[in-house]
Amino acid sequence: MSTLLTRAIEKRANVWSQMQEIQARAETEGRSELTAEEREKWDAAEADLTATSQDIERMERSARLDTVQRDQAVIATGSENAEDRGEIDQDAQYRAAFDVYVRHGMGGLSHEQRTLMMSNQAEVRAGATSPGTAGGYFIPTETLNRITEVMKAYGGLLGAANVITTASGNPLNWPTNDDTGNIGAILAENSQVTEQDVTLGQKTLGAYTYTSKLVRLSLQLLQDDVFGVESWLTRKLGERIGRAVAAHLATGTGTAQPEGLFTNATAGKTGQTGQTTSVTYDDLIDLQHSIDPAYRASAQWAMSDSALKVVRKLKDGQSRPLWEPSVQAGAPSLLLGQGVLIDNGIPAPAANAKSIGYGDINAGYVVRQVAGGQMMRLDERYADYLQVGFLGFLRLDAKPDDASAFRVYAHSAT
């Protein structure tokens, strides 16, 4: 953790402590309101708390992305199993071949590397731009993991959902069941047990193809490669795909794209007339209790940063903020005792908008990701610019699973 981040967290803790002292002084003296001087200090401290929290959020996000950019896959060593060592060696060889392919194309590969790349080729008929690049090549596992981690850092819902990784993109079916309305019973002596069938449903996940769009790099940059172009390019691909995925995981229509978690979620609480951009303390309590207690142990809040700004201004009956800022690294800030997930793909507060969610996201939402991310290198298309084009692809689908596990707050229409 950087020194700047440590100092910012310490500063937020000190500001929060000062605010608590102001509140405690008023309670000790039996006053229901703060004095003008206390109110002025409170407002100044609250503004400082908001600014510092925003700085912390930016630095933490930057740190996550920086870690994703630099982290490498952990390779096991000292294995006694020859087969395991063979798989590890082959993975390392493929990573090395892929790196050469990114920087120099197929012409820069040795015969063994070319054979290895061709064995991990995915045919893309319309993408053939030269005899040596008749298709896309599967991204090495740890490179694909970095893309996924960047997507999680950009869109929080992906990190909280139930992610299923499959080798292919064939339709994936799984059974569904909501048995929360059925209960057991006391059985009298010599009485027959009554029947209560379990009702099963079925959902299907496909695999939509997300692309990073075209990225062009100069031959000079690829040949010099002074800063690790493969890692840099991976980060750019992940950010672009992450932006597209984040929006769909929150509000996708379900037609020709994933169905978002918020799109058809049941409203656990709807704001009263006039609450087109606001929410009250009582609304959040009602939303929290619209979820069965069985889900609340693993529940969390989900909202955009603009919605969090609204929520952070809420206070309880004794003028204490509902939002509890974290005072130590690694510990999340809390709202009514539970963590807050920020994803800017979630709608901002507006008339009719579902801007705040609450529940067990892992139980309520499932994401299917195909492991074989692909990359194509276009050698000839931009040759007159001394540039090479790259295209990245990743296949993914998602939809709500257990509808009882997640509820939303809906603003009033007027």
Annotation keywords:
alpha+beta; 39% helix; 16 strands; 414 residues; seven-stranded mixed β-sheet; 21% strand; 12 helices; globular
Output the helix-strand order: HHHHEEHHEEEEHHEHHEHEEEEHEEEE
What's the gyration radius in Å? 26 Å
- Please state the structural category: alpha+beta
Tell me the quaternary state.
single chain
By DSSP, the count of extended strands is 16
Count helical runs. 12
Tell me roughly what share of residues is in helical segments.
Answer: 25-40%
The N- to C-terminal Cα distance equals 46 Å
Mean pLDDT level: 80
Largest sheet: 7 strands, mixed
Note the topology:
Layout: H1 3-28, H2 36-70, H3 82-104, H4 111-118, E1 121-123, E2 135-138, H5 141-154, H6 156-160, E3 162-166, E4 172-176, E5 201-205, E6 208-218, H7 219-224, H8 229-251, E7 267-270, H9 281-288, H10 293-296, E8 300-303, H11 305-311, E9 323-324, E10 334-335, E11 338-342, E12 354-359, H12 361-364, E13 365-370, E14 374-378, E15 387-400, E16 406-410
Parallel strand pairs: 3-13, 7-16, 8-11
Antiparallel strand pairs: 1-2, 2-14, 4-5, 6-15, 8-12, 9-10, 10-11, 12-16, 13-15, 14-15
Helix pairs in contact: 1-2, 2-5, 2-8, 3-4, 5-8
